[in-house]
Amino acid sequence: MHPSADELIGLTRRLASGLQAAHELGAIHRDIAPDNVLLPEGRLHEAKVIDFGIAKDLDPTNKTIVGDGFAGKLGFVAPEQFGDFNREVGPWTDVYSLALVILSVAAGRPIDMGATLVEAIEKRRAGPDLSVAPESLRPALAGMLRPNPAERFRSMGEVLQALDRAADGAPPSPRPAPAVGPAKKSSLPLFAGAAVGLLLLSAAGAYFLTRHPAKTPVAGAATASAAAGPRDSEKVRQAIETALPTAACSWIDIEGVSDGPGGVTVRLSGVAGSPASAQQTISAAAQATGAHVGLIDASNVFPVASGNCAPLGAFRAFREPSSELGRRFTSPQANWELSAKNDPCVGPNAKVVVNLSIGNPRQNFSIIGMDKNGGLQQIFNDRAAFNAYHAQFPEFVTDKGGDSFSSTACYNETGIVGQLLIVGAGPFDLGLPNALTSNKSQPVDAAWIKRFADAAKAGGWKTNMVWYRVVDDQPG
């Protein structure tokens, strides 16, 4: 049997509430499709949104690595993702895709929105057939599926208001409904690219969202009514901190954990060889606490090559717990743009700011640079080198008091970059090229890894890392 009108309204409300939380954090999903909605044990009322792998940052100062063009699955993306309407991508883009998902659930099959790019564009201009949806839900879906983003529901808040009207049996919104075309049999496979074992297409129910065991963690969206307990955020934080060392080939930091009406929200940053796998590990730990987890935002966990795995493992073995003294090494943002004018850098450069807090003038330290392929170079051999640089180039280092500093680095190439802070007893001679005299980085081998580990043990070293991405905002 097909889901009832109330079930479909509840499902739409749950997913819209979770996506609203993501939008408020400054990210849009851009890939809302059935295989990114999980159903624990097939229960619609526990549906969860996953995989923010191509999410776009709404902050205009941060550019997505994918760009503003096409991203997502052909059958469920919005018209603007194909280039229509000046590529105006925003929360309304997820609104459109969510409507197609709900319409497909109502039909028990993917709605035919075109098997080729040309067909997809044409079908979006014509509009899908809404007759497969319950009559009470059609006005809301019509407002979500307007081809022109300017005429469509612009936020998940508008969607939720329309759902309230649908649930109350109120008259439809005065927004005109989109043009609808005749119903046609889908020319697509039942679900292109998905494993048959993950589909829930049974005689008992025609839902085809991705099935997931009840206790398997996901990064998803909880309903707005599932309020987190007052201590849920702390339980989730502790669980994730315990799980971080088990996420293979990664360095991930917790940027924030907060309680809210939609559950606990977690924001992460850093890098991983497989961000999706790392996110799954972290989600497992969070869900195991029994807390209502509304959103795990891993949009600032960047992918790195396998060459990073060995050095990341070596550095992580000596990681300083953030709860010990707080984060010593941070950056105010995860994305930095190349610009023709970024004083004191000489453009085009990205002016990257990193904050350093040692807290003890007698404590020695070293800073190493790391690129996305695992190449290393020594930025400052020790505190004496850092102090000398500060004295010579005060425009690049600001003393914030309390043995804390804000340092500026200039990058003229795009890419994912990390810095490693080592705190402990010197010397820190690791045989790496000096970043102040050489532009080259050095890959490391097993012998270097052992040398680092031996020196770290002998010097009582503690490690911290900060990762960020340099993106190009230059015209052309």
Q: Name the shape in a single word.
A: elongated
- Highest CATH level, the class of the largest domain: Mainly Alpha
What is the CATH T-level topology of the largest domain? Answer: Transferase(Phosphotransferase), domain 1
Runs with pLDDT <50, length 5+? Answer: 57-71, 172-230
Oligomer: single chain
- Helices and strands, in order, run as HEEEEHHHHEHEEHEHHEEEEEHEEEHE
Q: In total, how many beta strands? A: 17
Our count of domains comes out at 3
| Secondary-structure arrangement, i.e. CATH architecture of the largest domain | Orthogonal Bundle
Distance between the termini: 53 Å
- Mean of all residue-level pLDDT scores: 78
Count up the helices.
Answer: 11
**What is the CATH superfamily of the largest domain?**
Transferase(Phosphotransferase) domain 1
Helix content: 25-40%
The main pleated sheet reads as: 9 strands, mixed
Structural class: alpha+beta
Range of strand content: 15-25%
- How big is the Rg? 25 Å
Question: What do these coordinates show?
Answer:
- This protein is an alpha+beta fold.
- The chain folds into three domains: 5-212, Orthogonal Bundle (Transferase(Phosphotransferase), domain 1), CATH 1.10.510.10; 232-303, GMP Synthetase, Chain A, domain 3, CATH 3.30.300; 309-472, Immunoglobulin-like.
- It has helices spanning 5-24, 91-107, 117-126, 138-144, 156-168, 232-243, 275-288, 309-316, 322-325, 383-392, 446-459; strands spanning 27-28, 37-40, 48-49, 56-57, 210-212, 250-258, 264-272, 293-303, 329-330, 335-342, 345-357, 365-371, 376-380, 397-399, 404-411, 415-423, 462-472.
- Strands 9, 10, 11, 12, 13, 14, 15, 16 and 17 form a nine-stranded mixed β-sheet that branches. Strands 3-2-5 form a three-stranded mixed β-sheet. A three-stranded mixed β-sheet has the order 6-7-8, sandwiched between helices.
- Helix 1 (5-24) packs antiparallel against helix 2 (91-107), helix 1 packs antiparallel against helix 5 and helix 8 runs parallel beside helix 11.
- It is elongated.
- The termini are far apart.
- Mean pLDDT is 78; it is low at 57-71 and 172-230.
